Amino acid sequence: MSIGFLGLGTMGQPIAHNLLRAGHALTVWNRSAAAAQPLLEAGAQLAAQPADAVRGPVLFSMLADDAAVRETLLERGALDALPAGSVHVNMATISVALARELSALHAERGVAYLAIPVLGRSDVAAAGQLNLLAAGDAAALARVQPLLEVIGRKTWYFGDAPEQANAVKLAANLCLASAIGTMAEASALVRGHGVDAADFLGMLGSTVFAAPAYQNYGGMIAEQRYSPAGFKTTLGLKDVRLALNAGESRHVPMPLAAVLRDQFIDAIAHGDGELDWSALAKVAARRAGQA
Amino acid sequence: MSIGFLGLGTMGQPIAHNLLRAGHALTVWNRSAAAAQPLLEAGAQLAAQPADAVRGPVLFSMLADDAAVRETLLERGALDALPAGSVHVNMATISVALARELSALHAERGVAYLAIPVLGRSDVAAAGQLNLLAAGDAAALARVQPLLEVIGRKTWYFGDAPEQANAVKLAANLCLASAIGTMAEASALVRGHGVDAADFLGMLGSTVFAAPAYQNYGGMIAEQRYSPAGFKTTLGLKDVRLALNAGESRHVPMPLAAVLRDQFIDAIAHGDGELDWSALAKVAARRAGQA
Amino acid sequence: MSIGFLGLGTMGQPIAHNLLRAGHALTVWNRSAAAAQPLLEAGAQLAAQPADAVRGPVLFSMLADDAAVRETLLERGALDALPAGSVHVNMATISVALARELSALHAERGVAYLAIPVLGRSDVAAAGQLNLLAAGDAAALARVQPLLEVIGRKTWYFGDAPEQANAVKLAANLCLASAIGTMAEASALVRGHGVDAADFLGMLGSTVFAAPAYQNYGGMIAEQRYSPAGFKTTLGLKDVRLALNAGESRHVPMPLAAVLRDQFIDAIAHGDGELDWSALAKVAARRAGQA
Amino acid sequence: MSIGFLGLGTMGQPIAHNLLRAGHALTVWNRSAAAAQPLLEAGAQLAAQPADAVRGPVLFSMLADDAAVRETLLERGALDALPAGSVHVNMATISVALARELSALHAERGVAYLAIPVLGRSDVAAAGQLNLLAAGDAAALARVQPLLEVIGRKTWYFGDAPEQANAVKLAANLCLASAIGTMAEASALVRGHGVDAADFLGMLGSTVFAAPAYQNYGGMIAEQRYSPAGFKTTLGLKDVRLALNAGESRHVPMPLAAVLRDQFIDAIAHGDGELDWSALAKVAARRAGQA
């Protein structure tokens, strides 16, 4: 199938490779063309402009945030280039408000709009094992499902309004932020009593919390290893803010998210915006006078 | 070995059975003698008073809270009955302050004091698969380790001050409370966007949070099944309060614990104190006007 | 002096009247022309479009929020109509981000931009006794100070960047929201102990908190009289959100604002968005099971 | 009248002086006798033990906290020395739980127990202008009212259960803590935008918050003058904790109090426990990276 692909960052790159490897004809675009090089070598075509990447019945996009989506899709014309009857799969973690706006704009043009943000880091993407959080028109989803098979291990469907998948993605990231913030706070507590936080976190990750989220982030906190960042503190703040906004738009109080937002801001105020978001543990330790 | 055992509640009962089954001579005491019946039938001796249960070199106690420990150990004389050189294994989840006080009182009497609160519910206790969170004198711990083998799957050692194990236990329960509170808040968020909370929680428990804590409590929240309670809301409040106090005594700010405390109080104010602590989800839903 | 005036709501109306009464020639515009009637009868001219109101060296605007300012000033051309050398006095409570954007746009056009949000309700505005929170070019402020004399009792100057006045206004409104939220919480506490909240609030407002803010809002809470609204719950949420955003843009954690935001959302979720923002007391009472 | 008086600290001293000056025969006791010297010179008698101070129909006590009250009244026998029919006026800021316990103990002995904590610092006490927050038996209060006239400017009556006055006192102190914490947070916000916090706080205290609480604490924050302490950070933490406990005992969620508690702990963790509680402003500034 002929597929357009916008956005070749850490996540977009391996996803595009998997589509290419499955035999599809890819036309790719990225803000800085250099990132496209490995894909071109593997057989993809380069589009000079976002609109030029629209070549067939399906467009994928994996852009950084609301601003990048707005610029690429709306201002630089990719949306207008989509023919009626085509499908746009937007994998970005964006605000529920923008998702709603995009739904309407696609509908006006007779283009099916699917929001399919993903769970998993770049190595998981490379292995084609992402969890795909999908929402939008079910028939359109069925059409692209064969493509999704080469990207993810499972497609989770949350409803026919695309923003529902974005709400789920933000909720899932909130759960991760909270797990990190809770380990940070609990570690400060045991450390205050002379217990090695690594002992505590090791026990947690081997017993009631034997899940990747606790093991990975718990390990980083135990070793105070916040660099290189898997997911930056500034991105943590962005996603928690989007979750709070998504809540506010439906009148959902979110007191835990509010505390976490506050701590990400504290981290950034202390120059740690580029560290991994598990650096929330530095905030908890500093507030306790432990650092 | 001749062992005394105080407290035959939901957790004490199966632990005592395992010790008995391993061939030890048990003298048991419980506030209401009826609970001792199954153990007596299995060969244990009944003590009329807490002090009468002190028969050999080791005393186990698994009492409900600070008040029960204070009454049984201090006021009703069990501590005074312990001979110098004996070992007391206290498995209760108590305050760090009481743990410190008990350490001093045992030391005065030449009695080794081990705090070994446990992770796991009664079915895990029955299977002898508890995780044992231990602190206190290492030599004393080595002496009782053969007994611990029949109770738990692993002994985790956190330091030579007994209260360190209590701090770890409170920190672990805080993590559980936070996981519940976070699932509650995130579920209210997705529900506000028309997503079935069960779909969201099912996905979480199958992916990044594939751990028992998320699966069990997530399932209860998904089904709004808060009764019978595995662990009551009132107990959740008690443990979060003890965690906050343990933090305060070492100058550790704990903003997430503070939010959770507030929500347990809200649940109790609405008559849900006897429900499982996963009923925090009712609080989140109610505040969002969803219930 | 010939003055343009945009926005004749609850606050704009009495301010415009005071300028007219002081002998100035006013050209006024309002989204719904009906609101302009009393001013026309008093001698003002009606502008058909925002840009038509720009008649002399000074333009005042008192619009509802960011969206109204953006529409009126930017989209409907008022800003473009301002001649170089003129002064625009923006009295709206807007975001710090928009204030910054407007500063740049005015500077490009050689128009002096003053942000002068006000403290005081409509009766205070009618009496010409507003407190004027000003920031922007000091020379421009000196030029309009004679006009400000008929509007307010005092001009407070906070710096030469216009957004500084907006930050101060948001900070002041946060203080009001917090005073309300605190009275709400403290009232729930004493009520929980059988004390009449009116007795408590009456004492507060006659002693350590003998200030208008506590007396007025305390009285409303004591009498549970939240309608008619002096300032609506939805506006309270808006301003606290703007304060949080203003903080985030400078990396300032704001945990109290975050709690208040959460409670405004709770109020709105329960259908109380149109009540006075002192209806936060309903939230506190409800959470305590008192209502 | 012959009056006993226990506790001659910063507050007890001037209150006792006023009673003496009004012509009453005072027998005083203080943990360190040195503090009694000025009163003895003015004609008071010294009691060697708390119980010895009980000489007539009325006993006043103004002790530091729960522990001091418990020791002086219960352990050292002052309560047992009170004859049936006498009146005990307890002016200390204590927990609602202890107040309830003391009510029962006094009732058993036929002694009237009045809780009358006060609002006002030592200079206000010296001027006999305290606000007296009273609860307990109304007839007993009427008996001592002539004595209260020389101590305070007004007696506020909150109910016949003594703990009601303690709940009110804790609620009032919570309002003060919140005013301080809010000024701290709002000051960090405006400072983040380059506004001098002193300008902001000066404006607040001259307008909507023209009340002693905002003027005094606002001035200390503006000048960053946290020493000498009028009321120490450690005492602020104590009173907010007592307020939270008082809330919990009646199922009242108190999210603002919880945030303030957290910040007092942060202050103490950074060595500022002995500073005035307005040093919460240091916490807000530090979290924003401003200090």
Automatic annotation (TrEMBL), chains A, B, C, D:
Gene3D superfamilies: N-(1-d-carboxylethyl)-l-norvaline Dehydrogenase, domain 2 (1.10.1040.10), NAD(P)-binding Rossmann-like Domain (3.40.50.720). Residues 2-159 form the 6-phosphogluconate dehydrogenase NADP-binding domain. One of its GO terms (molecular function) is oxidoreductase activity. InterPro entries: 6-PGluconate_DH-like_C_sf, 6PGD_dom2, 6PGDH_NADP-bd, HIBADH-like_NADP-bd, HIBADH-related, HIBADH-related_NP60_sf, NAD(P)-bd_dom_sf. The keyword Secreted does not apply. Residues 165-283 form the 3-hydroxyisobutyrate dehydrogenase-like NAD-binding domain. The active site is at K169. Keywords: NAD, Oxidoreductase. SUPFAM superfamilies: 6-phosphogluconate dehydrogenase C-terminal domain-like, NAD(P)-binding Rossmann-fold domains. This is Dehydrogenase. It comes from Xanthomonas graminis pv. arrhenatheri LMG 727.
